[in-house]
């Protein structure tokens, strides 16, 4: 396997959150002129091959519906905020010197405070929602471990405890610098918080990926089962919508919990791709999404209404999914060309848009 390792200069990604809210197609002109080779790429198989696993996942879901929803929501929200950890990156820029040691002064604090404002503006609501989910999840876990989950509960318990610790450390850091406490103790507490924050980051990142992978595997099984059920009932609008949602979830998982990895270092953001089949897998997902969207576009209003969907909103969802497919193509092209300039910005924008689509689907 060939490893690709590229350093992206940190200052590029500081602009990520500034553009996340823009309503635009990503580099549409470039994508149209630089097409990727999809010859030999196969579509995604939407069937469940392992009946035993399906039985276990259905049992886990049936016995833990509230917990399952909490797990799903918390992972979505954590991924938006910390899948690509903007706050951690700007913290490194502000306080970690070339020798990887904590170093602070008034200018660095001022810069970091500005980044905290940006974080709160972009993620403040999601951050509070995530913190509110933590006691709900812990309450469910206190009821006991469900073995039908094949380790989901155990891994999620490790993840959520570290994630809770992370939010507490972040809140302490915010309070410490915003209250100007550092001026009276000459950054003494700042050094302690620094050690806690950096240590927690490494542990939480690992447990997040483990919990994400296990939960996502179960989620895919459930989605595929819903696709089969909808097909058997001839609910074509519902079936295609579930397919599209599943494909977007699968693509997101590949970006945050697979062989593609990115890590923050003082010199830049290191991108590693250790599996050369990775890009082909992304193409499989993107091609299947395009075909599914085309099928959705062929549905008439009567079919959509018959399944109790609002036709206008359904078509709006289709339009937004077409926009997301452009993001997917752009990400694939950049991976193929090893052109990683601004790729994390595109990935972050895609993740947020996908999250918003999921919220819109809830109103259909």
Blueprint (SSEs and pairs):
Layout: E1 4-8, H1 10-13, H2 16-19, H3 28-33, H4 51-63, H5 65-83, H6 86-95, H7 106-141, H8 152-178, H9 182-185, H10 188-232, H11 236-256, E2 260-265, E3 268-273, H12 278-298, H13 301-306, H14 311-336, H15 343-361
Antiparallel strand pairs: 1-3, 2-3
- Total number of helices: 15
* Rg: 22 Å
Cα(first) to Cα(last) distance is 45 Å
Low-confidence stretches: 1-25, 27-33
Q: What general form does the structure show?
A: globular
Task: Describe, in plain words, how this protein is organized in 3D.
With 364 residues, this protein is mostly helical. Helices cover 72% and strands 5% of the residues. It is built from 15 helices and 3 strands. Strands 1-3-2 form a 3-stranded antiparallel sheet. Helix 5 (65-83) packs across helix 10 (188-232), helix 10 (188-232) packs antiparallel against helix 11 (236-256) and helix 14 (311-336) runs antiparallel to helix 15. The longest helix is centred in the middle third of the chain and has 45 residues, at 188-232. The N and C termini lie far apart (45 Å). Mean pLDDT is 88; it is low at 1-25 and 27-33.
Condensed summary:
The chain has 364 residues and is mostly helical.
Please give a handful of descriptors for the protein shown.
disordered N terminus, three-stranded antiparallel β-sheet, 364 residues, 15 helices
